Amino acid sequence: MFSFGNSGRNTLRGPGRNNFDLTIGRTFKLAESKSIEFRTEFFNAFNHAQFFNPDHSGFDSNFGQITQARAQRIIQFALKFYF
User: Fold this and answer.
1) Whether the Cβ atoms of residue 55 and residue 67 lie closer than 8 Å to each other
2) Rounded mean pLDDT of 61-75?
3) In whole angstroms, how far apart are CA 3 and each of 6, 7, 33, 58, 66?
4) How far apart are CA 24 and CA 77, in angstroms?
5) 15, 49 in Cβ contact below 8 A?
6) How far apart are CA 22 and CA 47, in angstroms?
7) Which of 8, 34, 37, 79 is the residue whose CA sits 20 to 30 A from 68?
8) Domain boundaries in the chain?
C-alpha cells in the first residue's frame, strides 16, 4: 500500500530567513558617578514574514504546505540607573 519513493535526500526545501535585529541606546550623565542608560531593542526589526519549513510528513493532508510562521516584530525598552 505505502512505499518509499526514489526521491533524493533534502529535496523538499523551505523558504529562507530574512531577520534583522537592531538596538539603539543612549547614556545620559547625571553626576560624576551617576548615569542613566536608555535602550530600545527591535527583534525582526523590518517585520519580514519568517515562515517555517513545509510539512514533510508524507501521510497527512498538509504535505508540502507551510502552515506556520515565526513571531512578528518584538520591541523592548530598557532603562538602567548606574550609581
Assistant:
1) yes
2) 87
3) 10, 12, 72, 11, 24
4) 10
5) no
6) 12
7) 8
8) 18-49+69-83
Torsion of CA 51, 52, 54, 56, to 10 degrees: 180
- Provide mean pLDDT across the span 44-59: 84
- 83 pLDDT exceeds 90? yes
**3-47 tens-digit pLDDT:** 677 777 777 777 888 889 999 999 999 999 999 999 999 999 998
Measured between alpha carbons, how far is 46 from 20 in angstroms, rounded to an integer? 7
CA distance 42 to 20: 8
- What's the pLDDT at 1? 57
Identify the residue whose cell numbers are 517555517: 52
